[in-house]
Amino acid sequence: xxxxxxxxxxxxxxxxxxxxxxxxxxxxxxxxxxxxxxxxxxxxxxxxxxxxxxxxxxxxxxxxxxxxxxxxxxxxxxxxxxxxxxxxxxxxxxxxxxxxxxxxxxxxxxxxxxxxxxxxxxxxxxxxxxxxxxxxxxxxxxx
Length: 143
Known about the structure:
The chain is mostly helical.
């Protein structure tokens, strides 16, 4: 994300943090109640309580599970189960953004070089057409 977008996102998150934390605490209390009310031997999965730190919430794999919609069969995907894989995915996204920024900077450098070349051409032409005339840019400058 660009700096402005990142700052806007951070500002939005900080504004909504109290409401998010209230919802998380309510969810966690419901999880505790479900666990308490579940009869012995019941195989229905109960959701795990969520971390109350927003930074840890992003790392919580239980948010990505769809156990309530369809039962999971087979192995859990590595991106869902392994924090190192998720870190690797984030690193790849960061690398991709860096490459995009390098391309944008290359285009900007090329545009600035073309602009400078054009400006130098204008100055050279001005000097050629005014050759022999005295030009003092500092004639009104007093020391």
